């Protein structure tokens, strides 16, 4: 019998890697330490549990690099995207999921697959060489014994940053005499809905009082060794944003544009807090952009200052946890192998990508590289003109200054990672704008992905 490929970590990246190998006919041993050992952020033992937002972000494949990555993952047969699409909840132009149904779907699919064995155990060190090609996808919450082994193998400290979680409230505790349902600019979402978000309006006095309360709120104190750990700019705690200036939130998650208050349509709100559906039943909503490190009692006090949330009942308070990731451009090769131990590949957020779909993408690629290697084949990385390839290129060498301590930082997929495209200006017409450039980048990506998938399929057929 063929020896299994070992995958350490049952998050998004590890689950996707296991699925990609199993669907290609390769046996897999998936090691997940929960519930034997939990983390500071997880609340269950399910695979692919979402510990932060329930949003996979934009599903616009023509105008947003995240949406394009969604499309590419679907074309690659991604389990994570299949489960996300099946358990979608309204979220405007974004793809958001019922987090419990989503994690249950991924868990059950892998548990029932005849080629997947799930071992509930902690792996306290790096997988040994006699395991053969293996994937480490332990994520940003890697247990300390394994993290220490990784640091020892890399010859340098892993970098770290703080990630924050937003609170979730019960829908029936929101005052609908004040709040209303509407998506920004009434833009349809993946499911066609145009009223996916709950909106809570604030006038100038209410907003400034709210910001003042944020600035005065008691927050979680860091331990001494955490004092110099930075935040990830894409997921700043709301009180950190507020401290940057009173207007910061109004030009960020609280921007009052594209929305009309039906309770008072002639008055434009000064700021608007949005809530996004968090489960399929529509009974839970999370506070968009309100990830926080405030103490629980302070969260209840401050967020209940928002009109419509005066009697908010919290299903989960926000929180903060420390994430770790590799200086991947230095320690990994172009196929995600650890240069110091080439039998190991790394996948997911531990490689320095940020976001659910980005983690999934690196898990998918790690698995496909492993598959080719076990078949004695060579699989070229996806072209950098694709979302998959652009993300991989950044992680494995595209980041400038990675040799400088602290220079390499977690990155979401974005069109800035793609090679530029030259669009000629037609005579008598204006220069192509951002919308046209993004559509052209997406069109090029689709064509180049098709060619790469044809090559990848040829490798799989050898099996």
Reading off the top of the CATH hierarchy, the class of the largest domain is best stated as Alpha Beta
Helix content: 25-40%
Give the mean pLDDT: 88
Overall number of strands: 17
What does this entry look like structurally?
It is a single chain. The chain has helices at residues 12-23, 65-75, 79-86, 99-112, 144-154, 204-216, 238-243, 296-303, 328-331, 356-374, 387-398, 434-462; strands spanning 5-8, 28-32, 55-58, 88-89, 94-97, 116-120, 134-136, 159-165, 168-170, 180-181, 197-202, 271-277, 284-287, 314-316, 319-325, 337-338, 341-346. With 463 residues, the chain is of the alpha+beta class. The chain folds into 2 domains: 5-158 and 326-462, FAD/NAD(P)-binding domain, CATH 3.50.50; 164-322, Elongation Factor Tu (Ef-tu), domain 3 (Beta Barrel). A hairpin with a 4-residue loop joins strand 4 (88-89) and strand 5. Helix 2 (65-75) runs parallel beside helix 10 (356-374). The longest helix has 29 residues, at 434-462.
């Amino acid at each position: 019998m063929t020896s299994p490929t070992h995958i350490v970590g049952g998050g998004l990246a590890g689950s996707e890697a296991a699925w990609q190998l199993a669907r290609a006919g390769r046996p897999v041993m998936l090691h997940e330490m929960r519930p034997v050992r939990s983390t500071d952020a997880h609340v269950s033992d399910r695979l692919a549990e979402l510990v932060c937002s329930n949003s996979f972000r934009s599903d616009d494949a023509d105008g947003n690099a995240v949406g394009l990555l969604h499309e590419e993952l679907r074309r690659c047969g991604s389990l994570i995207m299949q489960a996300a699409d099946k358990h979608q909840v309204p979220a405007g132009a974004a793809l958001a999921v019922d987090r419990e149904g989503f994690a249950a779907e991924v868990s059950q699919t892998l548990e029932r697959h005849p080629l997947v064995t799930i071992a509930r155990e902690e792996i306290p060190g790096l997988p040994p060489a006699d395991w053969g090609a293996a994937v480490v996808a332990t994520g940003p919450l890697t247990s300390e014994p394994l993290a220490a082994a990784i640091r020892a193998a890399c010859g340098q400290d892993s970098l770290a940053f703080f990630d924050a979680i937003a609170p979730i409230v019960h829908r029936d505790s929101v005052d609908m005499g004040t709040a209303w349902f509407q998506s920004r600019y009434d833009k349809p979402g993946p499911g066609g809905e145009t009223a996916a978000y709950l909106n809570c309006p604030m006038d100038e006095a209410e907003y400034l009082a709210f910001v003042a309360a944020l600035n005065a709120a008691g927050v979680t104190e860091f331990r001494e060794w955490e004092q110099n750990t930075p935040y990830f700019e894409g997921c700043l705690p709301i009180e950190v944003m507020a401290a940057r200036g009173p207007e910061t939130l109004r030009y960020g998650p609280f921007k009052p544009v594209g929305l009309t208050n039906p309770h008072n349509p002639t008055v434009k709100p000064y700021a608007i807090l949005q809530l996004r559906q968090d489960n399929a039943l529509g009974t839970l909503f999370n506070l968009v952009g309100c990830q926080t490190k405030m103490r629980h009692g302070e969260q209840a006090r401050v967020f209940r200052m928002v009109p419509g949330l005066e009697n908010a009942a919290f299903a989960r308070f926000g929180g903060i946890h420390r994430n770790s990731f590799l200086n991947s451009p230095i320690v990994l090769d172009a196929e995600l192998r650890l240069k110091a131990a080439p039998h190991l590949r790394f996948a997911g957020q531990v490689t320095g990508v940020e976001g659910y779909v980005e983690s999934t993408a690196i898990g998918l690629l790690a698995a496909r590289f492993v598959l080719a290697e076990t078949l004695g084949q060579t699989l070229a990385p996806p072209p950098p003109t694709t979302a998959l390839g652009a993300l991989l290129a950044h992680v494995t060498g595209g980041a400038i200054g990675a040799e400088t301590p602290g220079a390499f930082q977690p990155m979401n997929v974005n069109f800035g990672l793609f090679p530029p495209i030259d669009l000629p200006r037609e005579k008598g017409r204006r220069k192509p704008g951002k919308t046209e450039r993004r559509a052209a980048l997406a069109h090029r990506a689709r064509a180049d992905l098709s060619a790469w998938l044809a090559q990848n399929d040829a490798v799989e057929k050898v099996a």
